[in-house]
Design goal:
By secondary structure, the chain is of the alpha+beta class. The chain has helices spanning 3-11, 31-41, 43-46, 48-62, 104-170, 176-209, 234-239, 245-267, 304-369, 375-410; strands at residues 28-29, 69-75, 90-99, 220-221, 228-229, 272-281, 286-294, 419-420. A 4-stranded antiparallel sheet has the order 2-3-6-7, with no helix packed on it. Strands 1-4 form a two-stranded parallel sheet. Strands 5-8 form a two-stranded antiparallel ribbon. The two termini are 34 Å apart.
């Protein structure tokens, strides 16, 4: 695993370890263990092993020198006159070797080496993508668990409401229709509970699929959803964009394009072929050495077209990297604003709205029991409380998802500046 992947894994998204003690050992799944399992078992990451093997073959081929050539020639035989039969024949046996000039072999090896680095950069990017996806799905499961807990509380509240209404109906203090309405409310709460439980099961399976499990082996995830790590100022985050893995990949691509340009330039240098051998004249039995050299005249092809193509490809890398840097800066600013809004929403709900909603529910129940509130007023307060609690879950989930996206942009986990915990009376 790359060093950057380790840094992102060390703190990605959530500060979750503190929730692990809430469940018996072995039944809950921490984010760290989920990331480890995904990096070890993700099918897409395993495929990179084949890409490396293929590139190793390309590198070995790039280092191969041209083969020598054995040349045999026979002249002046099976003709007429003095060339009748083999009497006047001449036989030549020579060995030739092409000498690659312009350092072509080393340039080919450089290109193959840089192509391997590109694969390594892509593997690191994919590792970070897997980590980010694990964190996203992990947050989703954590939020689903809170929604299931909220649905259970909603069923309990609806059950208590039905029982209280039934008492009033039995005492002839409320109409029979209110008992029917309370029964309907309870049935709907149970349906909602079934729905969120099914969603939790689906999201647990989606999380487990990231490391190749068809069925999740964990009971639940250990998550402190309402703990919101604060992040640095925007200027400091923007400085961290240089660590973006996609930008870093452009550096590897730039090195590859430079190597390809050097190879194109060296290819324009014509190779020299040397030949040495032995010639025998059959008629007199004379023998002599022969030597030759071949050097193409590069009048028409100095590889200028390929050199121009390589230069353009190199310049394009710089242009694309600059465009990506601008796009990432804009995306980071948008995410930073979303993060601030999600934090403000969570803190506003925890510090003001949720405490008041809980107080309002107590007051409404008290008023209903004494006949000051009707059934509809009481149920309306209940619905408002449940809606606020759902909003609380959604806002906390959105905060962690946004923080995860920022960490993916910067390529590493962000240091926590402060930590906000849920106040008393709010679901932990």
């Amino acid at each position: 695993m790359s060093a950057r992947a380790w840094r992102l894994m060390a703190g990605v998204g959530l500060l979750l370890a503190s929730a692990a003690n809430a469940q018996p050992p072995g039944t809950d799944l921490s984010l760290r263990n989920a990331v480890r399992a995904a990096l070890a078992g993700n099918p897409e990451l395993r495929n990179f092993a084949y890409a490396f093997k293929a590139q190793d073959g390309q590198a070995a081929q790039a280092a191969v020198r041209p083969n020598p050539q054995l040349d045999f020639q026979a002249e002046d035989f099976l003709g007429t006159g003095q060339s009748r039969g083999f009497t006047g024949a001449e036989f030549s046996l020579s060995l030739s070797q092409t000498l690659e000039l312009g350092d072509k072999r080393r340039r080919r090896v450089e290109v193959a080496s840089e192509e391997r680095r590109i694969i390594e950069a892509e593997r690191q990017v994919r590792q970070l993508d897997v980590i980010a996806e694990v964190a996203r799905r992990f947050v989703g499961v954590a939020a689903d668990q809170e929604r299931v807990a909220l649905a259970v509380r909603a069923v309990q509240l609806a059950t208590a409401t039905r029982d209280e209404v039934q008492k009033r109906v039995d005492a002839a203090r409320s109409p029979l229709a209110e008992a029917s309405r309370a029964g309907i409310q309870l049935a709907r709460a149970r349906l909602d509970q079934t729905e969120v439980q099914r969603q939790l099961a689906a999201d647990r399976q989606r999380l487990a699929s990231l490391w190749g499990d068809s069925e999740p082996a964990f009971a639940q995830v250990a998550a402190a959803l309402y703990r919101l790590p604060a992040v640095e100022a925007f200027e400091q985050l923007r400085a961290r964009l240089e660590g973006n893995p996609d930008l870093s990949r452009f550096l590897s691509e730039a090195r590859l394009r430079d190597a390809e340009l050097r190879l194109a330039l060296s290819t324009g240098v014509q190779n020299l072929t040397l030949e040495a051998g032995l010639r025998r004249t059959q008629q007199g039995g004379d023998e002599a050495l022969l030597f030759g050299a071949t050097w193409p005249l590069g009048f028409n092809d100095r590889n200028a077209g390929n050199v121009a193509t390589a230069r353009a490809a190199r310049e394009r890398v710089d242009a694309e990297r600059a465009a990506l840097a601008l796009r990432l800066n804009s995306e980071l600013y948008g995410l930073y604003q979303q993060l601030a809004q999600a934090r403000a929403e969570v803190e506003g709900l925890e510090q003001e709205i949720l405490p008041r909603a809980h107080d309002a529910l107590k007051q409404a129940e008290y008023a209903y029991q004494r006949g000051r509130y009707g059934y509809l007023e009481w149920v309306d307060v209940q619905r408002e409380l449940l809606a606020v609690e759902r909003q609380h879950i959604d806002a906390a989930e959105r905060y962690h998802l946004t923080l995860n996206e920022i960490e993916r942009l910067t390529g590493e986990a962000l240091p926590a500046v402060t930590t906000t915990t849920a106040p008393a009376g709010v679901a932990p």
